[in-house]
Design goal:
single chain; 316 residues; mainly alpha; 17 helices; elongated
Length: 316
């Protein structure tokens, strides 16, 4: 029985429609992802309608300049500045445009990550594979990291971690484990890939993260902390480690209930009631959990209610 990690279901959705996704796919395929100094020099040269010889002047040889435009040779900073001056190109304008291209790369990376997150939210293995094809054909500076992330998401959606080499899983685990100060992106990554760790590793890592951030005033951080807490309750119940759950419930109690985190706060007593039933077999705890399950189903989330119901039945 697979219970979804709640953060991946509720927090990483960015809301592109199909038409918007297609536009982004096309732009990623056509833009080429990377603008170099050579390419920008070429743009300026063509705009001035000069030959490579006219553009290079006496600063560098035309043959060397031709290699710079093709990204086969690197021009020194001194020669680049002199070349810009000799062609009446303000240095600040040139580097400003170069930085704009860098921002374009960052924007494309952001769009890719949004598409990945939405495909994961939609549980769409097919769409993740399409995104993977686009990334594989492109020239993103961190292409290998993006491909690693997509492959990991595909494996999680398929509920088959054997699709991944042990080396890939170890790299993802290490990537998260080496984060010293978790921000929102780090929390999302950890929560999405908690299933890569065994229970003892998750106990160690989750407690460190929660202790660091449970006092945050950011609602977005609070959402993610509660999602991690819920996942830990699930893992502990599955592994019959009921004694480990109290610390997580206590952490959850430190986060005030507000509309943005209401769903998470609603779920926690449902899981904790399963634990309390194991301790004294009082049927009232089962009844309370069933009321929460009914509320979830009535709220239009029958699949999640069913998953929770199955967990309850398995632990009666």
């Amino acid at each position: 029985m697979f219970l979804p990690l709640f953060l991946t279901i509720y927090l990483v959705y960015f809301g592109y429609n199909e038409k918007e996704r297609n536009v982004i796919f096309d732009s990623l395929k056509l833009e080429g992802i990377k603008m170099t100094i050579g390419e920008l020099l070429k743009d300026y040269r063509i705009s001035q309608k000069k030959t490579q010889k006219q553009w290079a002047k006496d600063v560098i040889s035309p043959s060397f300049y031709a290699k710079v435009e093709k990204n086969l040779s690197r021009i020194s900073a001194e020669d680049l500045i002199e070349l810009l001056h000799s062609n009446q190109i303000p240095v600040i304008d040139f580097f400003s445009k170069l930085n704009q291209k860098d921002k374009s790369i960052n924007q494309q990376e952001l769009e890719i990550n949004r598409l990945i997150n939405e495909a994961y939210y939609q549980n769409s293995k097919k769409e993740l594979q399409q995104i993977r094809d686009v990334v594989a054909e492109g020239e993103l500076p961190n292409k290998n990291d993006e491909l690693l992330l997509i492959d990991a998401y595909i494996a999680v959606i398929s509920k088959d971690l054997t699709m991944l080499d042990k080396e890939v899983i170890d790299r993802m685990k290490e990537k998260v484990f080496n984060i010293s100060n978790f921000d929102e992106d780090g929390l999302i990554m950890y929560c999405n890939f908690m299933s890569f760790y065994d229970l003892n590793s998750n106990l160690l890592l989750s407690k460190r993260i929660i202790k660091q951030l449970v006092g945050s005033s950011s609602v977005r951080i609070q959402e993610k902390i509660l999602a991690i807490i819920i996942n830990m309750l699930i893992f502990c119940i599955r592994n019959k480690r009921f004694e480990e759950t109290e610390v997580f419930v206590n952490y959850a109690d430190q986060i005030k209930t507000k509309p943005e985190v209401f769903f998470y706060k609603l779920l926690i007593p449902a899981f904790y009631n399963i634990v309390k039933y194991q301790n004294n077999h009082d049927k009232k705890y089962l009844d309370e959990t069933e009321i929460i399950i009914k509320s979830i189903k009535l709220a239009g989330m029958p699949d999640y209610g069913k998953e929770l119901e199955e967990l309850l039945v398995a632990n009666k």
